[in-house]
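During the practical work, I worked with a single protein chain and the C-alpha cells that describe its fold, as given directly below.
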Amino acid sequence: MSIKRIKALYQLLAEIEENIPLKDKTNPEVTKSDIGWQLDHSLKVFNAVSEWTAKSNPKDYKREFNFWRTILFPLKYIPRGRVKAPKFVSPPEIITSDDLHKF
C-alpha cells in the first residue's frame, strides 16, 4: 500500500476519533442512527476489512465487472439504505466512548 493511502487511512481514523465526543447526536433527516452507531460500525468494518485483506491471497482474486461500481465509486457515492449490515459489524444498543476507543 502506498504511503499516500496509509496517510489517508490515518486521517480518516483521526476524524473518527474527533467525532467520538459527538456520539449521542443524531440527524433524523439523514439517518435513524446516532453518530455513535455510525462510528462503531465504521470501526468494525475497518477492522474486518483489514483482517480479511491481511489474510487474503492476491493470486485468488478475480475481478468481476460491476456496472454500478463503475458508475458510483468514481463519484465517491454510496447509496444509503440498500443493504443490511451483517451482525458482526452491527453496533450494540448502548455505545460508550470507552468502547469506541478500544477499536
Observations:
- The chain is about 50% helix and 0% strand.
